[in-house]
Backbone:
């Protein structure tokens, strides 16, 4: 199942989310996850996180993610970092793969 298909399952049929817009969100979340993971491509275990974060980005249009809201002058603020709640999983992945990164790095020895 593709990430777009996973996103489509999570968004009710009443929402008319264009695939091009959803794919743009998916690409954005994928790039951000790869940067945080230190990975060239998105590991398959993070596809569900990508789908969840994409849905949050979509629903942000409808005010999901509000961290505070006023009533008199209508003040609304959003959670700035959609991926913040997944930081534990990201750090666990990085820790688990730190040994792999060290073994693939080239070591240089200099003799003086």
Residues:
């Amino acid at each position: 199942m593709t990430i777009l298909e996973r996103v489509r399952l999570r968004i009710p049929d009443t929402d008319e989310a264009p695939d091009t817009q959803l794919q743009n969100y998916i690409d954005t979340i994928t790039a951000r996850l790869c940067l945080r993971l230190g990975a060239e491509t998105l590991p398959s275990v993070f596809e569900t996180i990508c789908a969840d974060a994409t849905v949050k980005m979509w629903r942000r249009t409808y005010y999901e993610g509000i961290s505070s809201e006023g009533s008199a002058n209508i003040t609304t603020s959003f959670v700035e970092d959609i991926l913040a709640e997944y930081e534990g999983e990201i750090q666990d992945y990085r820790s688990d793969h730190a040994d792999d990164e060290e073994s693939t790095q080239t070591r240089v020895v200099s003799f003086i």
In short: The first helix runs from residue 3 to 10. DSSP finds five helices and two strands in the chain. Helices lie at 3-10, 19-37, 47-60, 87-96, 98-104.
